[in-house]
Amino acid sequence: MNLRRVLVGDFVTNCYILTFSDRAVLIDPGDAFEKLERFCNGLPVTDILLTHGHLDHTAALGDFCDRYSPRVWMHKQDEDYLNDDILRAPASYPDPAWRRDLFATDFVNDGEEILLGQGEEALKLQVIHTPGHTPGSVCYYDEGNGFLFSGDTLFKGAEGRTDFPRSDWTDIKRSLKKLSLLPARTAVYPGHGFQTTIGGEPWIGEDWN
Ligand SMILES: [Zn+2]
Fold this sequence. Notes:
Layout: E1 2-8, E2 13-19, E3 24-27, H1 33-39, E4 45-49, H2 61-68, E5 71-75, H3 85-88, E6 106-108, E7 113-116, E8 123-129, E9 138-142, E10 147-151, E11 154-155, E12 158-159, H4 169-179, E13 187-190, E14 196-197
Parallel strand pairs: 3-4, 4-5, 5-6, 10-13
Antiparallel strand pairs: 1-2, 2-3, 7-8, 8-9, 9-10, 11-12, 13-14
């Protein structure tokens, strides 16, 4: 498995592309369908994992669904965000071209495992429900390889915004505390900005305001 970070869209979202020998898997295809597709090296996109429903993480989803009919994984509590212009684009996302129907095929719950790829290269991602930025925000955790896709819950040096509709400050604090229990060496791949580690963000385990 090969992991690649690709920057997309006006909010410079990190889309992560996992390529296996026979397939590609995307996390948060936030824009730039053609650019992302090029990084898939001609492999079919079988799965798309969403960390939450904001448009800067989903805007290329429709194009990938049209082309590949992948399984689309997300938490049920963010389903409303996919097609609600106020919920999905709270920061006045500039491009009206995204007004199209988006949908998920599989709803994940806390603790559930998603199996990606086959045979020796199979990868198991555990779902960690981390509400706060949105009620259905999730992180995807690979215990074996020691990395975490943290969406907009945890960035290098900061937590995700909680000034949006349905955001909750108390929830995100609780979610970050939960993440602080992961091994310190765990690599954190956030939805925006640079990667970090759990140990590099000691404040997430503290009581802070
Ligand atoms: Zn967001």
